[in-house]
Amino acid sequence: MLHAYLDESGIHSGAAVCVIAGYFGGAGQWGKFEVDWRKMLANFNVPMGEFHSKDIFPKAKGFFHPKNWSGDIQAFRWAIAETIAAQTKIHPVSAAIIVDHFNSFSLDERRYMTGATFRLGKLVNSGCPGKPYFAPFLQILVKICEYAPVGGKAHFFFGLDRQFAGYAIEMFKQIEESDLQSPGNIGDFAWKQRLGRPATPLAKETPQLQIADVLANLTYNYMLDAGDKMGELEPSPLLAKCIQNRRSHEDFFFNHKGTMRAALDRAIQFGQILRELADLSPETSDAETDDTAQSC
Question: Distance between CA 220 and CA 226 in Å, rounded?
Fold first, then answer.
C-alpha cells in the first residue's frame, strides 16, 4: 500500500504556471520520516504550525523574517532538503503546466486532457477545460497508481486547510463517475484498480504535506526561472536535493505546447475519437459542454 501526499502551487487565478507535486512511499517509511522532520523543526525552534514554504522560498518572510526569527534561513533550507533526501524510500513526483499553452488548445482537447470521456463519438462528461491544473493532477494520480503493487492501492492525502483539497476531492469524484473507472472499456486503464481513497488531514499538523508544499514551491519557482528553457535548465541545488530519490526521470512532467500536442497525437483512442467527432461542429460540442462544465 502506498501513501501519497500532494500539494500545489499556482492554481490561483492569473497564474502563468501551475504545479502539482508531492511524495509517495509506504506507511512505515512515512512514520520514520515524521520523527526526523519533527526533530529537525525543533532544532531550529520552528513550530509545526508556522511552517509554510512560501515564507521560506525564495525569500524569508512571515514567521521567518529576520525581525521575527533569529535562525539561519540558509541552514534551515538545507536542513529541510537533507531531511527529505535522507528518506531513500520516499519518492518525489511532480507535474507542471504552462497555463497559456494549455488554453491554446481546443475545447475538446482541453476536456480530454482534464479527464473527459467519450462514448460512441459523443462527450459523456465535461472534463474540466477551464481548470488547467486538473491535467497535471491526473498525470500525478496515474503515475503513483502505476507504482502501487498489483492488488494494492495508492491512497492520497491533501491538506484540509488548503484550497487544493476541495479541487482534489472533486477530481476523485469525477474519475469515479466516469468511464475511466471501468478498465478495458476505453484503452488501458488498469491503474484505476489501484486508485485508493482521498483523505484531508490538516497540513499544518502533517509533516508529509509540509514537504509536498516544499516540492511544489521549489518546482513552481524553477518553472518561472526556466521560462522557455523549462525542462532543459538544471534545477537549483535545493530542488535537486529534494528530488534525488526519484524512481525515474519520467516521474516529472513539464507540460508545454509541444509536449501536450505530442501526448495527444500519441493517444490512439483520442485519434479515434477525433475521427468520430469529425462531423460535429464546434458549436454543437460547446453547447453539449456548457451545462456540465459549469461545475468545474
Answer: 10
CA distance 224 to 266: 28
Q: What is the pLDDT of residues 237-254, one digit of tens each?
A: 999 999 999 999 889 988
Host domain of residue 185? 5-293
Cα gap 124→52, rounded to integer Å: 40
CA distance 50 to 84: 18
More confident call, 142 vs 63? 63
Cell (9 digits) for 159: 491538506
Domain count, the chain: 1
Alpha-carbon gap, residue 71 to 49, rounded angstroms: 17
Using the 8-state DSSP alphabet, how is residue 186 labeled?
Answer: S
Cell of 186: 476505453
The three cell numbers of residue 163 are 484550497
Give φ, ψ of 211 to 5 degrees.
Answer: -80, -25
Query: Cell numbers at residue 39, please?
Result: 526533530
